[in-house]
Amino acid sequence: MTEQSRHREDIEAGDLFADVPPPPPPDYLRDGRGIRSWLLTTDHKRIALMFYAVIVAMLALGGIFALLLRTELLTPDQTIMTAPVYNRMFTLHGVTMVFLFMIPSIPATFGNFVLPIMLGAKDLAFPRLNLASFYVYLLGTGVTLAAMVWGGVDTGWTFYPPYSTSTESSVFPVVVGIFIVGVSSMMTAINFIVTTHTLRAKGMNWFRLPLFVWAMYATSVIILLATPVIGLSLGLVGADRLYHFGIFDARFGGDPVLFQHLFWFYSHPAVYIMILPAMGVISELVSTFSRKPPSSYDAIAMSSLGIAFVGFFGWGHHMFVAGMSELDAGIFGGLSMFVAIFSAIKVFTWTATLYRGRVAFNTPMLYFFWFLFLFTFGGMTGVAVATQSLDVHWHDTYFVVAHFHFIMVGGTITAFLGAAHYWFPKMFGRLYSERMGLLTSVSVFFGFLFTFVPQFLLGNAGMPRRYYSYPARFQWLNVVSTGGAYLLAGALLLTLINLLCALKWGRRAGPNPWGSHGYEWMTRAIPIKHNFETPPVITRGPYDYHLPEEMPHVDPQAR
Amino acid sequence: MSTRRLAEQFEDLAKQDHAARLAMWIFLASEILLFAALFALYTSYRAMYPDEFARAAAHNNLAIGTINTFILITSSATVALALWAVRGGLQRLAGWLLIFSIGCGLLFLVLKGVEYGQHFRAGIYPGAGYRSAELTGQGVVLFFTLYFLITGLHAFHVVVGLAVLCWMTAGSLRGRFGPDEHVRFELGTLYWHLVDIVWIFVWPLLYLLHR
Lengths: 559, 211
What we know:
heterodimer; A: disordered C terminus; B: mainly alpha
C-alpha cells in the first residue's frame, strides 16, 4: 500500500471516531518538557532513548579505538603508537565494545522501547528500577572509562591471571566498573522477565508473544544466570590488587586456569547475550518485510531457549590449548556444536520464511540479509574452531579474531542497525531517507567484509592476535583490513548522519509505515506515555498476515 | 490502615504483588549464583588438595560454627513467625520477634569476629598474609583463603540483611505493615532466609567435611 492511501485511511478512521470527544494525550516525546522530565522519567521509552544515546556514543568510542589499532597495524613496525599504548588500546577497544556497547545494546535500547509495547503493557513492571539501571550503567561506564584513560589496562578484555594480577596497569577500577555495568544489565533482565510474566495484555498467551520478546526472555535468563559468576571472578582478580589473596596464583597452589573456567562460564553465554537479541530483531524483520509469518514460530522461539541452555555447556572450547584432556576437549567440542544445530534451525527457518513471501528490499531487510550471511559464515567457522585439532592451529591467531567479529559483531551490529531503521518511525514518528539507508547499509556490509575476511587469511597464515609487529609478508592483508575498517567507520558515520537528519527533516510517518502486523505498530505514530489509550485486547498472533490489514488495529482508539 | 496505591502499569494488586515476589525470587537466585562461583572454586581446589583441605577444616572451631548455625536458623524461624504475626495483624509482636532476630544476627557476627580473631592469632590469614607455622601446605592456604572469602561475603550479606530487618522492625513497631502491605515485609523475610540458606551450605563445607 502506498503512503498516501494509508494516510487517507488514517483520516477516514479519524472521521469515524469524530463524535468521540477527543482530547488526545500528547505523545511520549512531548509529554513533559524540560531536561528534568527526561532525566527523572520512568517512561520506558524515554529511558530507552537515553540508553540509545549513550550506547551509540560507546559504539563510536570503541570504533575510534579500533581505527587507531588498524592504523597502527598498517606497517609491520611502529606506525603511530608505542607497544604499551597499543596493548592498552586493544584492551580499551575490547572492554568498550563488549561490556559497554554490545551487551546492553539491543536489550537496553530496543528491548526497553518495544518490549512493553509488544506486550500491550503501559510500562515495564518496575519503572523506577529501569531508570536506576540507566544511572547504574552510566556510573559503571564512567568508572570503567575513567580508569582506562587514567592508568589504562593492558590485559585484554579477558583479564587472565597471572598477568592481570601482576601487571602495573589499573585493573582494579576497570573491574569495578564492569561489575557495576553487570548489575545494571541484571536489573534490566529482572524487569524484562517479570514484565513478560505479569504484564501481557488480555488475550496474549505465551505463543502469541512476538519472537523478539522470546529472544529478550532467553537473553534475560542468561544474564541472570551468568553475570553473578563473572562478577565474582572479576571481583576476585580485582581484589587481588588490594590484598594478595592469590586464589588463582600458582605460588599459593592456586590454578590460573580455574579463572579461565569461571570467566568463560560467563563469557561464553555472554556471546549469546549479544546474539540472541539480534536474532529476535531479525525474526521481526524477516516477517515484516516478507509479509509472511515465520515459517515456524515454535522452531524460532524454542531454539532461542535451546541456545540459552546449551550455551552454558560449551565454555571449555576457549581452553583447548590450556592443558585440557582430549576427552574433555571432545566433550566441549561436541557440546559447542549443539549451538550450531539450534542456530541452523533458526537460519533455515528465516530463509524458508522468504519463500513465496512478498519481499520488500528496505534498509532493515538488507540488514537481515547481511546478518544471515555474516552469522552463517561466522557460525561455520565457529564449528571449525570447536574442533580441537583445528583449533590448535588457529588458536590465538587472527582467524579467531575474525571468527568472533563475524558472529558477535557482525550479528549484533547488523541487527542493531536493522532495528535502528526498522523502529525509527515508531520511536520518532519520522522516516529516514531510504536511498541513503540502502547506500550506507551496503557500505557497512562491504566495509565489514574487507575488514575481516583478510583477518581470516592472516590467521590461517599464522599471524597471532594482539601482536604489535609482524613479518612484512603479512602487510598487504593488514592494509586491506585497515582500508575496510575505514570504509566501515565511514559507513557507520553516514548512517548516524542519515538518522540524525531524519529526526529533523524526515517525512512524517504513519502509525504503521511498513504494514507490519506486529503489536507495536498498533499504537499511534508516536506512542503516548502509556503506549495505548485503552488497554488492547489481543485476538490474533503477531504474524497473522493472512488476516486483512485492518485486523491489527484491535485497539479502537488507535489512530 | 494505609491503603496502597496501585502502580499504574498493573491492573490489580494481586498482579502487582505477584510481580514483586517473582522479581525477588529471581534476584535471590542470582545471589545464590554469586556464592555458587565460590563453591565451584572450593570444589575444584578440594579435588586438587583433598588431604590438606581435610586438615584445614579440622582446625576450624566446630563449636563456634555449629552454635552460629543454630543461632542463624533460630533467627530465621523468628523472622518467619514475624511474617505470620504481620499477616495476623499483630504488628507489635512482629516487631519484637524481629528484634530478637536482629539480636541473633548480631550475636552471629560477634562469634564470627571471635573466630576470625582466633585465626589471626594462629597466624591464619588469607593468601599472601598466611604465616602459620604448624599448619602448612598450599591446599591449607587455599582453604583458608576460600574460608575468608566465603564467610566474608556471607557476613556482608548478614549486614545487609540486618539493615533490612531494622527497616522492617521500625515499620512494624509503627504499624506500617497493614493488611495491604504484607508483600514488602514478606520480601524482606525472604532476603533473611537467603542469608540463612547460604550458611546451611557453608557450614558443612568449612566445618564438617573433614572426616
